[in-house]
Amino acid sequence: MRQGQAHLEYLPLSKVNTVVYCARRFYLEYVLGEVHTNHHLIGGQYLHERVHTEPGEQSGLWVWSDQLRLVGVVDRLEWRQGGATPVEYKLGRAKAEAYLSDSVQLAAQALCLWESRGIKAERGFVYYHKSHLRREVVFTPELFLAVEKAVNRMRSLLHNPRPPGVEVPPAKCEGCSVREACQPELWRKGVARWA
Hints:
Strand content: 15-25%
Number of strands: 6
Number of helices: 7
Distance between the termini: 20 Å
Helix content: 25-40%
């Protein structure tokens, strides 16, 4: 990627989730191209390929935002009580509320849905496959602001000569597809400050 054009590039909508979850992971995956397929990635791809769609719904709907310079896919678009409701599928287990990174990604989908298709959504759902549960996400101004912050962080990381440090608790590193490239244990011990 040419440095002068990084601000013009459309970024993958799915990477909004990644940068909110772990900025170092975003940098390693997107900037350096460190993607190591593991069972989490394979399971997630399989799940997304088999999104169930009822009559009148859509799955795999491409959306974009020229303002945010994002492009990506809404896993499923449902119509509930006369309103559009995007649904994001995740492989993991549900907590009492949707994870922040999933909520911000879903809000980014809503912004892209509005800008590219003229479809306004006031809420959406994250479906957690391992739990077979949905968690509702209401799209608030604060959540839309979190989307803008995430996109700004992504763009700033594109210009960094090095990845950011490890900013997440150790539990978030379990099962991470870039763990070998990241070396979070060494970073936390101060051994890998160079990387």
